[in-house]
Amino acid sequence: MKPATTGPVPDRPDALTAQVLDSLRGEDERLRELIAGIVTHLHAFVRETRPTEAEWLRAMDFLVRTGHACTDRRNEFILLADMLGLTSAVDEVNHVGPPTMTPSSVEGPFHSPAPPRPMGAWIAEGPERARGEAAVVHGRVTDCDGRPVPGAVLDIWQADDTGLYDSQDDEQPEGNLRALLTTGDDGSYWFRTVRPSSYPVPTDGPVGELLRALGRHPMRPAHIHLRVEADGHRPLTTHLFAAGDPYLDSDAAFAVKDALVAPFRPCADAGKRARFAMEGPFLEAGFDIRLVAEGETR
Ligand code: BEZ
Ligand code: FE
Fold it and tell me: Are strands 289-291 and 236-242 parallel, antiparallel or unpaired?
């Protein structure tokens, strides 16, 4: 497609931008700042790319359809922000801290209330338990200096071995592959599950259309979501990504960070098998979590 016009852009757009910025009023200073930023960048975008009126209307139609695709259980706008890396950008500017902290990562659309479970619980209670590869995930929750954090609550959720969450699959009981675990004195945690697999984000709406038009795949690398809360520490929402996954370098949600990637290794150690009460072969993934103390200024 050709841009609307060629040749030099007249002076008017700059004056127009200034006029719009000058019109911003109201008590809320932060709102004015945010809208001024959007106006400035979008006006610059228009001057730079010169959309035709037909292209502009097509964009408006896309946004309207994105809104119409939203329901109580699906937010197509959040998905759009995820697929454009905007959610990860917002995450990045909001979670700075010491270099030893566990990095945060996007929440995604599949969080729902998890059942409290005892430490070491099997969280795979659906058909995936017989079908998938058994795995033990374990680690310690500490502060950024390695001191254990007792009483930390881990909210864990993951898709099954075919890439489906309980909310997408009638075969899985509600609360499947979800857990709330509370750490003891040494900050340690562990649970038994099946290895997650990579899966596509929903592609049956306008965002799927956009991904196809842009020649992009919809896949997310295999992961487990964790949200960790502990008194005196900043809450952390993050992922554990499975090392070796073919989509680690091209996550559709741009949410992978190196420090969040851990291997699921086959474990043949009889002592560990007994300690984790595993009957057959299993994979082991270690994932320590370092929280930032409230008031931390590093
Ligand atoms: C997820 O991990 O569940 C997810 C994250 C971003 C977009 C879609 C799905
Ligand atoms: Fe997910």
Answer: unpaired
Site to substitute for ligand 1 among 76, 90, 104, 106, most atoms within 8 A of C-beta: 106
Q: Read off the amino acid at residue 202.
A: P
Write out the two tokens for 126. 């659906």
The verdict on the CB of residue 220 being under 6 Å from ligand 1 is yes
**Which residue carries 């619980």 as its tokens?**
121
CB within 8 Å of 17: residues ≥ 6 apart: 39, 40, 43, 44
End-to-end CA distance of the chain: 49
DSSP string, 88-153: HHHHHHH----TTSPPP----S------B--TT-B---STHHHHS-EEEEEEEEEETTS-B-TTPE
* Total H helices, total E strands in the chain: 8, 12
Give 147: exposed, middle or buried? Use CB within 10 Å, 0-12, 13-18, 19+: exposed
Model confidence pLDDT, tens digit, residues 190-210? 999 999 999 999 999 999 999
Considering every ligand atom, which ligand is closest to the CA of 201? 1
Per residue in 47-85, pLDDT (tens digit) is 999 999 999 999 999 999 999 999 987 899 999 999 999
